[in-house]
Amino acid sequence: MAGLAARHLLGLAEMEAEEINLVLETARPMAGVMERPIKKVPTLRGKVLVTLFYEPSTRTRVSFELAAKYMGADTVSIAPATSSVVKGENLRDTVQTLEALGADMVVVRHQTAGVPGQLAGWLSRTVVVNAGDGMHEHPTQGLLDLFTIREEKGRLVGLEVAIIGDILHSRVARSDIWGLTKMGARVRVAGPATLLPPGLEKMGAQVYHRLEPALEGADVVIALRLQQERQRQGLLPSLREYAASFGLTPGRLALAKPDVLLMHPGPVNRGVELAAELVDAPCSAINRQVTNGVAVRMAVLYLLLGGG
Ligand code: CP
To answer: Fewer Cβ atoms within 10 A, N terminus or C terminus of the chain?
Structure first.
């Protein structure tokens, strides 16, 4: 396959398995660049990437900026709180201003689902990448999760992947479910009934209301952050009760395969969705996910900005 079909990256729901595979294959040599003493290739020299984040981020924003810098692009980071947004400038005028300033790509995170797609419709030349929109998708997190699993397990086809926790508010869960099922893995999801949205079976996931059966024999377990900032009143009795029913502990994780891979998109609420000691346990790939995120985002920039 020569490239990605769409000009923008809005979600994994829209991508074909062949395109996902292309991103994962392209990320491998990018990971090699990151291991060099001088992490620099001139592939995107002259290109300009703008990060526009209306919600907080450490991993996604920094990894996009590093990915762009490693490939020779120039980067600008906009914090809406210190931009003309506070003077009332709307989204359309903001991104069209960025396009007029010469941005080749805008990487956007927004609290409202669908904003990246809306921006894409307003821009004639600038490429849009979704860095997380509301409860919809976080496609580059999904891609880096797939990359990590394939690097660690050697395959995706036929793996049993359990996604545990706050599925309702998780854009990561949605991107992971779309990506994993398209690539041939089997996905189980488990969480409290109030945090399991309708429609998960239609996406190809098997739904569990208890943690233990979802963990049994799993090859990969992905714990999700309990999104306390998005909880509506009454969805959870208490954090303590949530942790008692759905918190991952070494004893519970022992129900999975002996060589289980433990993942989490971060940031982790230690002692809530994950026992603190599991974060650094030998089965944990959490820090490797972060590292792989740079290589996967380099691949995305390369494929969308016509590198090489
Ligand atoms: N996983 C993730 O999106 O992390 P950040 O919020 O730190 O970007």
So the answer is: C
